[in-house]
Amino acid sequence: MNDVQITVGALRDAVRRFVDARDWRQFHSPKNLAMSIAIESAELMEHFQWIDSAESLCIRESPNEFQQVREELADILCYALSLANALDIDLSTAVLEKIRKNEAKYPADQFRGRFR
């Protein structure tokens, strides 16, 4: 399966089944999940810590390093999906609402090619 073939809901269900099979929901408070997202994000950042932006674009050229980055990103997403499950957040709605908010805050005609 790939991103085009699977829904966010299906990913949430897969994470929920994994967590429930291990009776881990008792540990998955929003606080713990938010902390886990931050911890996994730090682990992802370690792979890019001492390289420049150009080098970071070449990470795919090292299969082992690229696999580790994929796994850290997957860990972050699994915890984010678990947090959505714990708080019953519809991620598709939340993302689209956030994009609309950011579109108003950062109009394309004023921010194209700029970050300020």
Brief write-up:
By secondary structure, the chain is an all-alpha fold. Helices cover 68% and strands 0% of the residues. It has a single domain, classed as Helix Hairpins.
Number of discrete domains: 1
**CATH H-level superfamily:** MazG-like
Q: How many beta-strand segments? A: 0
Task: Tell me the span between the first and last alpha carbons.
Answer: 38 Å
The residue ranges in which pLDDT falls below 50 over 5 or more consecutive positions are none
SSE run:
HHHHHH
DSSP strand content: under 5%
In helices, the fraction of residues equals: 55-70%
How is the CATH topology named? Answer: Helix Hairpins
Description:
With 116 residues, the chain is mostly helical. It has a single domain, classed as Helix Hairpins (Orthogonal Bundle). The chain is 68% helix and 0% strand. The radius of gyration is 17 Å and the shape is globular. The mean pLDDT is 97.
List keywords for this structure.
116 residues; mainly alpha; Helix Hairpins
